[in-house]
Amino acid sequence: MNGQMGGQPILVLPEGTLRQLGKDAQKANIAAAKAVAETVKTTLGPRGMDKMLVDTIGDVVITNDGATILDEMEIEHPAAKMMVEVAKTQEDEVGDGTTTAVVLSGELLKTAELLLEQNIHPTVIIKGYRMAKKKVLEALNILGKDVTVNDKDILRKIALTAMTGKGSEAAKDSLGELAVKAVEAVMDNGKINTENIQIEKRQGGSIDDTELIQGVVIDKEIVHANMPKLIKNAKVALIDSALEVKETETDAQIRISKPTELKAFMEQEAEMIKDMVNKIVSSGANVVFCQKGIDDLAQHYLAKNGIAAVRRVKKSDMDKLAKATGANIITSIEELSKEDLGEAGVVEEKKIADEEMVIVKECKNPKAVSILIRGGTEHVVDEVKRAMEDAIQGVAGAIEVGKFISGGGSAEVELGKILRNYAESVGGREQLAINAFADALEVIPRTLAESAGMDPIDALVKLRTKHEKGEKNYGVDVVSAGIADMINLGVIEPLKIKTQAIKSATEAAEMILRIDDTITASKINKGGSSSMPPSGAGMGGMM
């Protein structure tokens, strides 16, 4: 970058700086963002394909979950990274619909590119997109149908829709049921915190062996061989302090000159540990979960009293245990009383897939539950876990917002129709952008039709005809490769997924369209030499 002054060029940016201006910058950024969208596009829907991601050390991930794919890919290009952010936002906010959000964002840029080629200014496109987004969100609210926690059948269908196309297809009915039950269990005063649903995975068995535990699964073992491995009618104590003799806070030395003094010192230590154990025994506890360490001698005394103990339990697990059993977490053993204990029908140590686990189950009214996922191989278990997370988030999102809409691309076709009518009333150049937004939305039914082996244009024409006749719920039926009423087929999804996908996709597209200058400056070192820009920066280096 240089300016001319009396024949003398003035260098503003240091040497080795890459710069792209105007349309070049826009084209490069749009190309990078589209490349990301194209990568995940084929995974959309029940007939979507999977991606195998292999890292440098040979670890393999097989998935068709958009967020996971983008997370595992090492993306360099700055505009492409924005697309990854779209997926992350979608994943954090609603847990599902990541592929939809990314594909939509890529398509919005694709349609915007055609307008840019017609010399329509980016700010006009952005204004039109904003108007379209506002209209779409209003329309979605009207299209949404009500759902409450009591509509079990609808919630089950939402869970099934979220799972379709993931590796858990074979056992999705039973898994969908589990997702609904789990969300119901942790619902507290109308609020749902999905973090209280713990998902543990163990390979072995089959997907059908996946079970919902009314309680918590702790990935630890009981500390002493002589402790009982199965405790019925458990009285659970949760202790957040070490069952050991504490070292003194101040620097103190104990000088022992005779063996008898040493013996007395050892006995005194043992006595202190005995007192701690007696305190636990007198409270009536028969199971102890300790967040810190348990001394060998304390283990011995606890075992003698028939008390099972688990040590070094994670803080998050302690919180879940408190919610499941109703126990209070105690920081000082001196304070432990009968009122602080929680209850569980059964606490047992089980060997699952060569690893010991402690399962706390049959809790009366647990506000934390666990789902133990089983499957033939590690990859199957991982994919079922991802599917289960999507289903749980979907059910929770539907209850939270209280609305659902038909899936299979039916909502997008209907929104496209609404936007085209709206564009006519707007006029001006903005209407071109609103129409472009309508075209972009239809990428969802188009992709679904493609993955089912249908002719996408043919499918879209049929769908538009149905929607013109007022059949709002008609979408792509990928199973029979035709079009059908999605509500009748039970293909429904939470409104929250759609609204969030449209919001984040539009915002990302707007942000990329605003950029008209990409400067990849090399860092200037103190010594004066400049390190070269990273490979692929500014352009190229997609993946």
CATH architecture of the largest domain: Orthogonal Bundle
The number of strands is 23
How many distinct folded domains? Answer: 3
Structural class call reads: alpha+beta
Query: Shape, please?
Result: elongated
CATH superfamily of the largest domain: GroEL-like equatorial domain
Q: What is the terminal separation in angstroms?
A: 28 Å
Give me the number of helical elements. 17
Q: What's the CATH class of the largest domain, please?
A: Mainly Alpha
What is the makeup of the main sheet?
7 strands, mixed
Low-confidence stretches are 524-543
CATH topology label of the largest domain: GROEL, domain 1
Overall pLDDT:
82
Write up this protein.
The protein has 543 residues and is of the alpha+beta class. It folds into 3 domains: 22-146 and 406-520, GroEL-like equatorial domain (GROEL, domain 1, Orthogonal Bundle); 149-212 and 368-400, TCP-1-like chaperonin intermediate domain (GROEL, domain 2), CATH 3.30.260.10; 215-365, GroEL. Helix content is 47%, strand content 19%. The protein has 17 helices and 23 strands. The strands form 8 sheets. Strands 11, 12, 13, 14, 15, 16 and 17 form a 7-stranded mixed sheet that branches. A 3-stranded antiparallel sheet has the order 6-19-22.
